[in-house]
Design a protein that fits this description.
By secondary structure, this protein is mostly beta strands. The strands form 3 sheets. Strands 1, 5, 6, 7 and 9 form a 5-stranded antiparallel β-sheet that branches. Strands 8-4-10-11 form a 4-stranded antiparallel β-sheet, with no helix packed on it.
Amino acid sequence: MERASIATASNETVNAYVPVYSHIYTDGGKPVLLESTLVIRNTDPTHKINIHSIDYYNTNGEIIRQFISEGYELNAMSSAEYLVEKREVKGGAGANFFIRWSNPNNASDPIFEAVMIGSGHDKDISFTSRSPQ
């Protein structure tokens, strides 16, 4: 059975929201700084998708960084990654990536995932979050 894509075969732009954390709290409110990596995975074995913009927002909904200056094609079965270093603390616990993409070739839906890692207060922390589909 063929699965329908979220983005139909057109240049209609689709939005993806990925929660990300520049820090979390532990031990009664002590912040642990996290390094975050956004990974975009094209899951289609034959078709490209288009990535139009990748923006990083803070807890207050303010844009902190635009990761690309112009759109690009993401090849079949390939991935792209974008790093927010742990010294970048402006994002806060409610930060997010906002990705605009399109699917001109009726490709399978991509995966948008963030991986957060950090250590502090004698703890190593790692976890992931994904864009809701």
